[in-house]
Amino acid sequence: MSRIRVGVAVATFMSAIATFALAAGPASAHEVRKVGAYEITIGWEHEPTYTGIENAVQIFIKDAKGNPIDDLGDPPSLKVQVINGSQTSDPLDLKASFDPDTGLGMHGEFDAAIVPTVPGDYTFHLTGSINGQNIDEKFTSSDKTFDPVKDPSDIQFPAKTPSNGQLAQSVSRLDTRETKAAKDAKDSADTAKTLAIVGIAVGVVLGGGGLIVAMGSRRRPA
Predict the structure, then answer these.
(1) Rounded to whole angstroms, how far apart are CA atoms 171 and 169?
(2) Is pLDDT of 217 > 80?
(3) For residue 213, what is the enclosing H or E element?
(4) In DSSP terms, which residues pair with 136 in a beta bridge?
(5) 81 lies in which domain range?
(6) Which of 142, 161, 180 is the last residue of a domain?
(7) What percent of the chain has pLDDT over 70?
(8) Band of the pLDDT at 135, cuts 50, 70, 90?
(9) Residue 124 in contact with residue 138, Cβ under 8 Å?
């Protein structure tokens, strides 16, 4: 087989692989859920997901026939809130990946940019509507859905930087030390002020006593 034919065969094979990858849809570390007339697939845009690194909530929407949905209604009302522990973000706007003017991007994909700052499990609360159908669904990271957020120390090189949590703890400890130092300084100042007042009072008393003694001595007959 000539080099040209080999090159053509390789190019055809690689094209087929790329087509299959696109047809397969989003990454497996997402949760797929049927919600009414739609299929919603949701997860992190970049996985593994690390704290302090920009990411996004990634959503794919298809209709009952498996066709991607690009139009969410006019005006679009679908939004997502990100929940970690007791903290809940403001509703985040979902930006369409596909641009009809340029033809770039993926049909049916919507993203909401966010930078997770704490490791652990996250929940995505999707609310609003898709072309009149109300949506109110929560999706939580797990072994069967999408990845939890990880601390990036395992992949940092050559030097490991402190995490946001570690920095927060350091700042908290520094604030505590500064508060204690300020309190100790105030207590010392208050003590010095009290001692000064006592000293003045003692001086006044002793001075007054000396004056009385002196006056008494003057009144004695010669």
Answers:
(1) 5
(2) no
(3) helix 164-219
(4) 127
(5) 3-161
(6) 161
(7) 74
(8) very high
(9) yes
* 97 Cβ contact list (under 8 Å, min separation 6): 105, 106, 109, 110, 111
Compute the distance between CA of residue 57 and CA of residue 178 in angstroms, rounded to an integer: 39
Count of residues in the chain = 222
Amino acid identity of 179? Answer: T
Token match 């991007």: residue? 105
**Number of compact structural domains in the chain:** 2
* 185 and 149 within one domain: no
| Residue 213: partners with Cβ closer than 8 Å, 6 or more residues away | none
Radius of gyration, alpha carbons of the chain: 36
Q: What one-letter code names the amino acid at 32?
A: V
Token pair recorded at residue 152? 């990036």
54 vs 23: CA distance, rounded Å: 27
Whether the full predicted model's pTM is greater than 0.85, yes or no, is no
Instruction: Look at the block and give the residue holding tokens 């080099």.
Output: 3
